[in-house]
Amino acid sequence: MLSIIARRFAGLLLTLTVMSAAVFVVMEVVPGDPAAIQLGTSARPDTLAALRASMGLDQPALVRYLAWVGGMLHGDFGTSFTYGVPVAGLIAERLAVTLPLAVMAIVLSTLIAIPLGVLAAARHGKAADYGATLFAQLCLAVPNFWIGLLLIVVFAVGLGWFPAGGFPGWSAGIGASLKALLLPALALALPQSAVLARVMRAAVLDVMGEEFVATARAKGLTRRATLWRHVVPNALVPVVTILGLQFSFLIAGAVLVENVFVLPGLGRLAFQALAQRDLLVIRDVVMFLAALVVVVNFLVDMAYLVLDPRLRGRT
User: Fold this and answer.
1) What family is it from (predicted)?
2) Which of 83, 120, 137, 189 has the lowest tally of Cβ within 10 angstroms?
3) What distance in Å separates the CA atoms of residue 252 and residue 230, rounded to the nearest whole number?
4) How far apart are CA 137 and CA 128, in angstroms?
5) Cα separation, 89 vs 114, whole angstroms
6) Long-range Cβ contacts of 22-27 (<8 Å, 24+ apart)
């Protein structure tokens, strides 16, 4: 088991290294002169030269890359050209909104999808199965930002139960903050719950055909007990894979929903940096999100070792 963890961790480090090199080349080498991109074509030569010097663009690309990676390892992501503050502080500030939003979305997605998928599999070919399939297709067909707009119209404008947008800050209290995040979290969760419910349904149906399920029934276990004690735990392995991918997607793909609800999250920061041509912020946010996806996938691999004992004996 330790050898498996060591190999996966080595793969994690290699992936992060290759990814950082790719991000650096795409953001600082391929576009040409990052300083000219930020200031525009009408910038004065002396201003352009000063910005290039402050950004270290007068150094060779390899030196800049090693300095960037070394700074990230020490928590120094550089200083934003637009905001004039450290990028690490910007990411931490915005992550305090995006991370709870993603966690709420993944919790809501799981609470909706797993019972729905189990119900559809247990009532295979019946009305409940068709209803769950229809729900999943509807949620997949409608983009999450449209779901967000519908939720605003119904629950914010119509009923007045939730705010239509904005974030009061955690200093305003956990209740007010979670209330502001509930609608955007639900808008993110519904399409993901549709995917997860279909995976859960397929996994449960697959496990129900195994011999140990028939053995459990032959020993006198009821259908419900067999389903929840033996079938569902064994069907969770592929579901964990989807959960890991969904969490990564929710962190990295919440740009539209955060803009719909005017949330000061990481996705909105990337959108604003792109509009303001702040390449330093874009580079660091992209690298941070990519690294987060890789780390989450690594943790999913580790979860396999816990959920599936057969993997622990492999070398």
Assistant:
1) Belongs to the binding-protein-dependent transport system permease family.
2) 137
3) 35
4) 14
5) 37
6) 23/283, 23/286, 23/287, 23/290, 24/61, 24/64, 24/65, 24/68, 24/283, 27/279, 27/282, 27/283, 27/286
Residue 258: both structure tokens together: 């955060």
Q: DSSP class of residue 57?
A: T
- Picking from 252, 142, 224, 231, the residue whose alpha carbon sits closest to that of residue 239 is 231
Q: Are 131 and 115 in contact (CB under 8 A)?
A: no
Residue 300 and residue 248 in contact, taking contact as beta carbons nearer than 8 Å: no
Q: What proportion of the chain, given as a percentage, has pLDDT over 90?
A: 0
Question: Which amino acid, 302?
Answer: M
State pLDDT tens for residues 148-203. 888 888 888 888 888 887 788 788 888 888 888 888 888 888 888 888 888 888 87
Residue 19 has pLDDT above 70, yes or no: yes
How many CB atoms are located within 10 Å of the residue 38 CB?
18
By C-alpha distance, which of 188, 162, 192, 185 is closest to 175?
162
Residue with tokens 């705010």: 163
What distance in Å separates the CA atoms of residue 5 and residue 223, rounded to the nearest whole number? 37
| Cα–Cα distance measured from residue 75 to residue 63, given in angstroms and rounded to the nearest whole number | 18
Q: What's the confidence (pLDDT) of residue 315?
A: 47
User: What is the DSSP code (8-state) at residue 142?
Assistant: S
Which of 57-61, 101-105, 126-130, 246-250 is predicted least confidently? 57-61
Q: What domains lie within the chain, and their CATH numbers?
A: 2-73 (no CATH), 94-308 (1.10.3720.10)
Distance CA 104, CA 262 (A): 17
Q: How far apart are CA 253 and CA 286, in angstroms?
A: 11
